[in-house]
Design goal:
The chain has 252 residues and is α+β, with helices and mostly antiparallel strands. Helices cover 38% and strands 21% of the residues. Strands 1-2-3-5-4 form a five-stranded mixed barrel.
């Protein structure tokens, strides 16, 4: 990485994941880039009213950035908004923050995932156009594909411990430490073998994102329950902050 990091990188597709105060006039940004993965950059002077960066360094907006340096925190040299949709609001914005929390928690810095970046961009486009329950398939699809991309999702067309194939009518559950296992017939939060097999087909590397969306939409309540335990386990938390915030708002 040293040889790459020491030179200036330009026109790198990126999304802002989070921002921290660094000084009275500067910010440190966590960004998700297509070719360099998640990284931190310092945006000097960005909080000044005259800064050209100030109105564009926003979450859920596709940017092209330039950066340089060989330290853990790189220096932002330029940023250009690539246009497209306006900032989502309401539950769509909260859903976007949830995506960002997942990326920041589960992706190591400087570990490129260009395919996941493209998936993230697809989900952001969905967030900009729908709201309410229509957001759920996109969130479940991203969770599945994120887990697959970073190697935390077992194959969904076989039992993990025995490698035995799935019986279409039998129900199976996804366990954080045991993978896909047979469950009791009364476990309504589980999915049938046929449903798991369809999900596996939908997340194949050659499958379009729309195929994954449709497969997730068919099993939303059960899939949400199955993925929640796996994500919380690998994130090391009982409940992600943004998920808790969404639940709190729903009770108001």
């Amino acid at each position: 990485m040293t040889g790459v990091a020491t030179k200036r990188i330009s026109d790198e597709p990126a999304y802002v994941l989070h921002r921290y105060d660094w000084s009275e006039s500067s910010l440190i940004l966590e960004v998700f880039t297509r070719h360099h993965g998640r990284m931190a950059v310092v945006a000097k002077g960005v909080k000044r009213p005259s800064s050209s960066f100030r109105p564009i360094l926003l979450p859920l907006q596709l940017l092209h950035i330039a950066f340089g340096g060989d330290a853990e925190i790189r220096s932002l040299k330029g940023a250009e908004w690539m246009g497209g949709h306006v900032m989502p609001g309401g539950d769509a914005l909260l859903s976007g923050y949830y995506l960002n929390e997942l990326v920041m928690t589960l992706l190591a810095r400087d570990d490129p995932h260009p395919r996941l970046f493209d998936i993230y961009a697809c989900v952001v486009e969905v967030l900009a156009s729908v709201h309410g329950e229509a957001l759920q398939p996109a969130l479940r699809a991203f969770e599945l594909l994120l887990l697959r991309e970073i190697g935390l999702l077992p194959m969904l067309d076989a039992q993990t411990m025995t490698l035995m194939g799935l019986v279409e009518s039998q129900r199976y559950s996804l366990r954080p430490e045991g993978g896909l296992q047979q469950s009791g017939s009364d476990d309504r939060a589980s999915l049938t073998g046929a449903q798991w097999q369809l999900l596996q087909q939908s997340i194949a590397p050659t499958a379009p994102f729309t195929v994954t969306l449709r497969a997730c939409a068919d099993v939303l309540p059960e899939l949400k329950s199955q993925l929640r335990g796996l994500l919380n386990y690998h994130c090391g938390v009982g409940t992600l902050r943004t998920r808790q915030m969404m639940m709190d708002l729903q009770t108001l």
